[in-house]
Amino acid sequence: MRLRGHTARAARGEERTGDDSRTRPPAPPAWLRWLPVGYVALVLVLEPLTPVEWPVSFALIALPLVAAFAHGPAVVAGVTVFAVLSEWTLAGTPCCAGRHLGYEWDPHYVAAYVCTALVGFLGTVLAQHRTRRERTLADVRFVADIAQQVLLRPVPHRVGDLRLESFYLSAFAEARIGGDLYEAVPTAHGVRLLIGDVRGKGLLAVETAATLLGSFREAAHDEPDLPALAGRVETSMTRRSDQISGSDVGERFVTAVIAEIRTDEHTVRVVNRGHPPPLLIRPGELRELDSGRSAPPLNLGMLVGEPYPEDVYPFLPGDQLLLYTDGITETRDPAGTFYPLLERLRSWGPLPPRELLDRLHHDLLEYSHDRPRDDIAALTVVLRPPEEAADASARRGT
Questions:
Q1: pLDDT digits (tens, 9 = 90+) for 47-75
Q2: Three-state secondary structure along the chain?
């Protein structure tokens, strides 16, 4: 899941600390932590090389603020004391540009001591405020991660002879939850898949996604066919929209694909509600499962009032189905050219599900220069060939 987002939480270094169960903010980069040391070294190098009337040691007044960027209030306070003592020492050091003894209490240097202490006080307050904000942000991110685990929980990696994988990539590193969604539910009717994209951003999109996913997870077990399942989900969305006030509520809709794979029949059934069509990948062939009968997005079906069309396609052993949101095809390079998804997939050839999504993820980041403009979600499922399934059964037996 979400290599830069969903499964990358462990790599971000967020840890639980203390009895208050708060997360620890990520440590600042090493160069920022060592910047005060480099700043002091630069002053010590320049001080003996400059004329007497240019006391470079006055630059140490800014040292507490330099430390406040990466360190806590206690360290900044200690750096302030160090800066004052260093200024006092340099003021009376004969080696510094021929300076004689007795400058320690020169009015200019005394003023520098006072200014350094004042800047140190302000830097300490700034560092305390920064660390408090970082802890608050870490708490919010931790809660958002928990919310995303509930909202976009991991799909089962294996269901019978099916192998499934998914990933989610946020357009913004600070955002953990967006309007793209996916789900895979094993049911008595087959494995039912959902991929969707909520119109808009922010909390309203998250609330819409939660409503849609909750309805799909429940109705997937009850409804015998896909059109009825799509209708059930749309009814839940419409009912929820009627309960919420706001000028944008009536404009909320979701483009989605609902699919059902029946391994006993070797078929995949698809109901497309205004979403990019799924891709069927098999050796030597790549095709869009698009019959041209896409229905309106969810929550806009009342505008048509017609039954939801269902398309049936063969899904043979070794076939792979890729469902994705338009954030992939709308990814652009610096020149503004859209990402050529079909061209890329043809050049790669058939890949295992995890390898396919990993390669797609890295290729999207490289293509956009690590600056995607929209959230991205993808879900892929492959039907294992009989010989592979037999080998797996034999390995489990031994």
A1: 777 776 667 888 999 999 999 999 999 99
A2: CCCCCCCCCHHHCCCEECCCCEECCCCCCHHHHCHHHHHHHHHHHHHHHCCCCCCHHHHHHHHHHHHHCCCCHHHHHHHHHHHHHHHHHHHCCCCCCCCCCCCCCCHHHHHHHHHHHHHHHHHHHHHHHHHHHHHHHHHHHHHHHHHHHHHCCCCCCEECCEEEEEEEECCCCCCCCCCEEEEEEEECCEEEEEEEEECCCHHHHHHHHHHHHHHHHHHHHHCCCHHHHHHHHHHHHHHHHHHCCCCCHHHCCEEEEEEEEECCCCEEEEEEECCCCCEEEECCEEEECCCCCCCCCECCHHHCCCCCCCEEEECCCCCEEEEECHHHHCCECCCCCECCHHHHHHHHCCCCHHHHHHHHHHHHHHHCCCCCCCCEEEEEEEECCHHHHHHHHHHHHC
